[in-house]
Amino acid sequence: DAKSLFTYFDSLDISDYSVFITDSYDHVLYEYQNFSDESEKLTYDELREKRVSSHDIISEKSDVTDWKVYFYRPNIAGSKRLHLIYTIIILVVVLIAIAMCMLLLSTSQIITGRIERLMKNMQDVEKGELEVHVEGKYDDEIGTLIDSFKKMVERIRHLIEEVYLGKLYQKEYELRALQQQINPHFLYNTLSMINFKALEVGE
């Protein structure tokens, strides 16, 4: 009775394994499988295909009976390790993707914010407020544009000041010239009036 003869294999102090015992004609004399996951179970034909390249199968042949014992146990530790590695890889990929999305969002927000502030400054300058509140501290195209805009506004302010001062000086010169013209006439009229009054009193 093979079941009684090989009952020792039914009580090994391990789990998730299978045992096959075959005779010299490769007929299965005894089979025992103990797996928590039913999908791990193998038929003897599957075991024969698997044992060619598998490191999870131990086989021994009896010199007396020519029987063979096949002991199969999946590499559970390896599969768990692989599962853990796959999980870590997936988590790392997801975290990298999230970080890249956040970086892209923050970068786009910074760029958009700088452009919006520059547009606001342009609108203020259009209204006559010659103050620029955007700093071109980045060495990129937007920073170059901001610096050029600031220089342009400074130049406009300088030109306005030059024109304004020029107009002031011109008005001042015109006023002085007018005073120069008025003073002789005023003096002449004053003297004429005194002369007239003197003549009037003398009569």
**Oligomeric state of the chains?**
single chain
Strand order of the largest sheet: 2-1-4-3
Give the overall pLDDT as a whole number: 77
Q: How helix-rich are the residues, as a percent range?
A: 55-70%
Uncertain ranges: none
Q: Could you tell me the radius of gyration in angstroms?
A: 52 Å
Question: How many H/I helical runs?
Answer: 4
Give me the secondary-structure category.
Answer: alpha+beta
What does this structure look like?
By secondary structure, the protein is of the alpha+beta class. 61% of the residues lie in helices and 11% in strands. The chain has 4 helices and 4 strands; from the N terminus they run αββαββαα. It has helices at residues 2-5, 44-50, 76-126, 141-202, and strands at 17-22, 28-34, 57-61, 68-72. It has a 4-stranded antiparallel β-sheet, with helices on one face. The longest helix is centred in the last third of the chain and has 62 residues, at 141-202. The radius of gyration is 52 Å and the shape is rod-shaped. It starts with a helix and ends with a helix. The mean pLDDT is 77.
Give a brief rundown of this model.
It contains 4 helices and 4 strands; from the N terminus they run H-E-E-H-E-E-H-H. The protein has helices at 2-5, 44-50, 76-126, 141-202, and strands at 17-22, 28-34, 57-61, 68-72.
